[in-house]
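Quick illustration, no need to memorize.
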Amino acid sequence: MSAFSDISGIRLIMVIGITLVILFALFFSINLFSTNSLKGIIRNSREISVNKFLRLRNEKGKGNRLASNKIDVPGVYIIHNHTQKMYYVGQAQHIVSRANNHFTGKGNGRVYADYAHGDRFTIRFVTLKRSRAKNLNDLERYFIKKYNALEMGYNRTKGNK
């Protein structure tokens, strides 16, 4: 005899529905809080240390290529210098590669100098797809203004026009 034979049709539908909601919530929360992969961090716009970013960025995938190349998407990156309480906001079609440049000496020279000097940095990514912005320029200008990155940060312009 089935375990569900004593449950009426409506109750059975409710049990199945509640079970599905619980499973969906569990899956969503695991995905939401995933900080073990760069893809999860970017998807959920989580702030991480630059050292963790560089480690995840340099993980190898198939064919000994950078695994992060598959998740290099359009968006903005927000670099936060906790030591000096300054921000740098940048945009790119490939945010992972572009953000990486700032910590390897190929980006904003002042950010790199402070990083090389030992200041504590974190980085956060906001993809264009997951934002409400119409384009990268609007998204970048929003975050430059939000973090006062022009007057009190590393940015030298209000963003692209």
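The radius of gyration is 21 Å.
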